[in-house]
Amino acid sequence: MFCCSGQDDSTKHKQQNNLSHTASNRSVVTQQPTSIKATISNNLSPQSTGVRSASHQQHQQRQQLQKKVQSRMSQHPRNKADVTIYEATDSSIDENQHKHDGATATVYEDSSKTDSQYDDADNEEEEEDADQDMDDYFDLTKLQPGQAHYPGSQWLLGPQPEHLKGRKCLILDLDETLVHSSFKFLRQADFVIPVDIDNQLHNVYVIKRPGVDEFMRRVGEIYEVVVFTASVSRYGDPLLDVLDTHKSIHHRLFRDSCFNYQNNYIKNLAQIGRPLSDIIILDNSPASYLFHPQHAIPISSWFSDAHDNELLDIMPFLEDLAKDNVEDIGVVLDINI
Question: What is the pTM of this model?
Answer without folding.
Answer: 0.65
